[in-house]
Amino acid sequence: MFDERSPIYLQIADQIKNDIVSGALAEDEQVMSTNQYAAFYRINPATAAKGFAQLVDEGVLYKKRGIGMFVSPNARDLLRTGRREGFFADVVDPMIREAKALGVPLRDVVQHIREYGDA
Amino acid sequence: MTTSTVAQTALGVRAENLTVRFGGVPALDRLDLRLAPGKIHGLLGRNGSGKSTLAAVLAGFRQPDDGRVLIDGAGLGTPMPPYENAVVTSRVCLIRESGDLVDSAPVRQVLGLAASLRPYWDAELAAELLDRFEVPAGKRISKLSRGKRSALGVVLGLASRAPLTIFDETYLGMDVPSRNVFYDALLADYAEVPRTIVLSTHLVSEVSTLLEEVVILDNGRLVTQSPVDALRGRGAAMVGPAALVDKFAADFTVLAEERLGGTKSVTVLGDLDPALRAEAAASGLEIGLVGLQDLFVHLTAPAPKGDRR
């Protein structure tokens, strides 16, 4: 579930961000409480709280006093814009480097992208 | 979890120059340590590192030979040593693997005794946990399997709701499903009544996500104390040409090194910032992250001959 090689609070934050980007968590939807989250994933509540606090700082979640935490109305756009900026550098460029190293012609890669994208 | 509830239900620990010797050999060697109240601490170390001795001193089972331990908070007024001090020891619950139980007594009687000794005892929780672990209340302790005995220890530890609760390898006798029941019950009850919990173990990977802080002991000394999340990602392995590895490893604490011909591999402790990573990668050095369990193994491994960290 969690990787032992990076701080768990960051992994929690990333997981929730992924759920928001994929649409599994809708905007203005309430997220689990820290204690529920801690119990569900069997982690320390303070660690869960730190992950949630990070998301509040980034504007991805907001707090309603005494009720809980919710997904910010613009969270999905915010995250998608942020990820789009890094998409070519983080995802496409390494793929091209790997293709070149393996001797896979770029036109095959492009063709695969077209076919996979249309499927 | 508010600070006021933590202040009421949690105890802090301060050890200063704490030394315990067995036949002249130090089991704890001038240990300086603080455990913040209200957190779940992992007490990690290999067998014989001093974990159980420390736990016994904290619970007042044993007097230090030198230095002292003070327990603080939860309505104690002033910090006080636990040894021969009923006010402290009734609030500190140590559960050891042996169980410290009277063999001839039935389970029900053991619970009754705990109820009379523990000021924060929760009988309802005890009954519920006994059920979940399927420990028969009418059976004598001597008739319980090792797993059920361990489970009874866990029930006593949790239902005591002691402001300082120490589980010293208690759960080793339990099978995996029962250990998971223990971890779930611990987190649930800790959320309800925040208190100071110490889990002593050498099985780092299994409990690491439950912890907030870790204390690592080796040979009776403190190796490191840190928030557990800060240790994740702090270990790195560098592999490459020996001269290059030496150049980059120079600024870090080297935990282990290995050489094969011109290639060298080192495990280091430290924060590798992205700039350094990029520079290392550009010059042909491979850098990999080291997981918590591996880091623990390196931190407590016997040092190379004539070279003590």
Automatic annotation (TrEMBL), chain A:
Any GO molecular function: DNA-binding transcription factor activity
Keywords of this entry: DNA-binding, Transcription, Transcription regulation
InterPro entries, per database record: Tscrpt_reg_HTH_GntR (IPR000524), WH-like_DNA-bd_sf (IPR036388), WH_DNA-bd_sf (IPR036390)
Pfam families membership: GntR
Domain HTH gntR-type: 6-74
Database matches in Gene3D superfamilies: Winged helix-like DNA-binding domain superfamily/Winged helix DNA-binding domain
UniProt xrefs under SMART domains: HTH_GNTR
Tagged with keyword rRNA-binding: no
Protein name, entry field: DNA-binding transcriptional regulator YhcF (GntR family)
UniProt source species: Kribbella sandramycini
UniProtKB/TrEMBL annotation, chain B:
Pfam family, one: ABC_tran
Keywords recorded for this protein, A-Z: ATP-binding, Nucleotide-binding
Record-given protein name: ABC transporter ATP-binding protein
Source organism superkingdom: Bacteria
PROSITE patterns, alphabetized: ABC_TRANSPORTER_2 (PS50893)
Gene Ontology molecular functions: ATP binding; ATP hydrolysis activity
UniProt source species: Kribbella sandramycini
PANTHER family: ABC TRANSPORTER, ATP-BINDING PROTEIN, SKFA PEPTIDE EXPORT ATP-BINDING PROTEIN SKFE
SMART domains given in the database record: AAA (SM00382)
Domain ABC transporter: 13-244
Keyword Nucleotide-binding attributed: yes
